[in-house]
């Protein structure tokens, strides 16, 4: 037997003299069932609407599935040539102390990696090479000697300070000279002797230090 649907005329019969009449349980069941069906259809239409499905945001990073290991990340390049824990033999300068041990790169301060970086312009590089008398390039040595001669001829404070033991000039003093010239020659020879002795001591210390490494 088909169920009867509620019509407006039937709803009007539920009220008498302005007071609502209690509906039967059968009528309430029909109303609730129809309402639930209508809500389900609207929800299904909303969830399967194509523009809403296509407008889902695309993630820039891939999502790993449960149980799947994340992609490996590349470690930063090593900045030090010594592996952490390496004993730096010969770098101890305290009496009775131990040689230092290399640490990890992140344990050192950031300024340490750039303290030796020098920004040189083209003119600065040219001036530096021009003053290098011990360069491997013959042309550079020739330019350095020419520049040194020009500074020496100009005189003044800009002239290079050449140590006494490396000068190629003759010492003062002649046979039959005056007493003042002879005294001046004695002082110059004594100055040369002290400078050469000091240089020999420094060279011996350097040699002994290099042998102990």
UniProtKB/TrEMBL annotation:
Coarsely, its chief localization is: mitochondrion
Compositional bias segments (type: Pro residues):
68-77
Instruction: Report residue spans for region: Disordered.
Output: 58-77
Query: Which Gene Ontology cellular component terms are annotated?
Result: mitochondrial large ribosomal subunit
Q: Where in the cell is it found?
A: Mitochondrion
PANTHER family (alphabetical)? 39S RIBOSOMAL PROTEIN L54, MITOCHONDRIAL (PTHR28595), LARGE RIBOSOMAL SUBUNIT PROTEIN ML54 (PTHR28595:SF1)
Q: To which protein family does this belong?
A: Belongs to the mitochondrion-specific ribosomal protein mL54 family.
Please give the name of this protein: Large ribosomal subunit protein mL54
- Source species, please? Ophiocordyceps polyrhachis-furcata BCC 54312
């Amino acid at each position: 037997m088909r169920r009867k649907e509620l019509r407006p005329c039937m709803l009007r019969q539920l009220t008498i003299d302005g007071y609502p009449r209690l509906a039967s349980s059968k009528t309430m069941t029909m109303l609730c069932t129809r309402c639930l069906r209508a809500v389900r259809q609207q929800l299904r239409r909303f969830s399967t609407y194509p523009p809403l499905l296509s407008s889902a945001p695309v993630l820039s990073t891939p999502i790993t599935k449960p149980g799947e290991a994340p992609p490996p990340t590349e470690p930063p390049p090593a900045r030090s040539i010594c592996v952490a824990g390496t004993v730096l033999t010969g770098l101890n300068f305290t009496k009775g102390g131990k040689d230092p041990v290399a640490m990890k790169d992140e344990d050192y301060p950031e300024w340490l990696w750039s303290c030796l970086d020098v920004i040189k312009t083209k003119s600065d590089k040219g001036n530096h090479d021009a003053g290098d008398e011990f360069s491997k390039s013959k042309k550079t040595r020739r330019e350095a000697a020419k520049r040194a001669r020009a500074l020496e001829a100009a005189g003044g404070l800009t002239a290079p300070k050449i140590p006494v033991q490396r000068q190629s000039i003759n010492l003062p003093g002649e046979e039959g000279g005056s007493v003042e010239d002879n005294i001046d020659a004695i002082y110059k020879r004594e100055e040369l002797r002290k400078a050469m002795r000091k240089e020999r001591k420094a060279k011996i210390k350097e040699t002994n230090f290099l042998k102990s490494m």
